[in-house]
Design a protein that fits this description.
Elements lengths: L2 E7 L5 H4 L8 E5 L4 E6 L2 E7 L5 H11 L3 E6 L10 H19 L6 E5 L6 H14 L3 E5 L10 H13 L3 E4 L14 H20 L2 H4 L6 E3 L6 H14 L19 E3 L5 H11 L4 E2 L15 H5 L5 H15 L4
Keywords: Decarboxylase, Hydrolase, Lyase, Metal-binding, Zinc
GO cellular component, one term: cytosol
InterPro entries: ACMSD (IPR032465), Amidohydro-rel (IPR006680), Metal_Hydrolase (IPR032466)
Length: 330
């Protein structure tokens, strides 16, 4: 089995429907019959997209061509709605989640729907997860922060504990990147900011003691190869051992927590993948492509297959075995 855990969807949502979330700037899809479309934010064009993002037939055809057996399908981060009034955000998530289920109904054995939640209101987020699981969602997709609250925030830790209790795996995606005023042009927020946001989220969970407070049954995956976490882990361990202010709230050095979360394989270089597997262990890396966006892996699994440092057993785990366990129903 080849399972892509990091693949996005923007189901057909009209401008009128987007007003469930925001009267002026709600996200919606302007889709053309020619397979070209535009993600919209109110009246503003946000990003051009292709039919694989909203058309399940186009998605399944692309999967067939690429040799992908299954995808975990998650919303495009523009759709999160974390800045909205919580009641409107909850209604919006219900709409989006219903549309994701409709999209995945085209082939339920191959398309695994992940719900989104109003993370700005943890009580509503927990209720949304429970409803979504009952409706058929296989996991939860969240941004790496809601405003200034990261996954080490007490209420978000409570939300993650609820996901563990429900047996719902959680996929964490970077978004709304830090310091945009210093990353103008050349897609630097995506090239630099996403890696920084992801490492920041992981390190905050470790050093705050959030992982110590969460049940080990929580299945948590960080996209984009965990950002810069693996490359800078030695720096973090050195700081933990040598400065009491770093280790004040965590029971062990950062390297001791690599068995508490997963990462995807979207690092685009066999050398980087080798390091990632060495740091995380072969059971903690899963194939992720960022389909269907142009910064994703164009040939799913190519980097995994071309990494000579990996054994065939490890390749099989990354390409599908680990994801099978990650999304197993409980």
């Amino acid at each position: 089995m080849v399972i892509d855990v990091h693949a996005h969807v923007f189901p057909p949502i009209t401008r009128a429907e987007s007003r469930v979330l925001d009267d002026e700037d709600g996200p919606w899809l302007r889709a053309g019959d020619d397979g070209a479309g535009m993600m919209m934010s109110g009246s503003e064009e946000y990003r051009p997209v292709t039919a694989g993002l909203w058309d399940p037939a186009a998605r399944l055809a692309a999967m067939d061509a690429a040799g992908v057996d299954a995808q975990a399908v998650s919303s495009t981060p523009l759709m999160f709605g974390y800045g909205a009034e919580p009641g409107r955000a909850a209604a919006w998530c219900d709409l989006v989640n219903a549309r994701i289920l409709e999209h995945c109904a085209a082939d339920p054995a191959r398309l695994l729907p992940l719900c989104q939640v109003p993370l700005q209101d943890v009580a509503r987020a927990c209720e949304t997860v429970t409803r979504a699981k009952a409706a058929g969602h296989r996991g939860v997709h969240i941004g790496n922060h809601a405003g200034d609250r990261y996954p080490d925030d007490g209420e978000i830790v409570e939300f993650l504990a609820h996901c563990a209790h429900e047996g719902m795996p959680v996929l964490v995606h970077p978004w709304d990147m830090l310091a945009p005023e210093r990353m103008r042009g050349h897609m630097l927020p995506w090239l630099v900011g996403m890696a920084a946001e992801t490492q920041l989220s992981i390190m905050r969970m470790i050093l705050s003691g959030a992982f110590d407070r969460l049940p080990r049954s929580l299945r948590l995956c960080f996209c984009h190869g965990g950002g810069s976490f693996a490359y800078l882990l030695g720096r973090a361990d050195n700081a933990w051992h040598n400065r009491d202010i770093v280790r004040a709230d965590s029971s062990a050095p950062p390297s001791a927590y690599t068995d508490r979360f997963f990462v995807d394989s979207a690092v685009f270089d066999p050398r980087a993948l080798r390091l990632l597997v060495e740091v995380m262990g072969p059971e903690r890396v899963m194939l992720g492509t960022d389909y269907p966006f142009p910064l994703g892996e164009r040939k799913p699994g190519e980097v995994v297959r071309s990494c000579d440092a990996l054994t065939e057993e490890t390749r099989d785990l990354i390409l599908g075995g680990n994801a099978t366990a990650f999304f197993a129903r409980s």
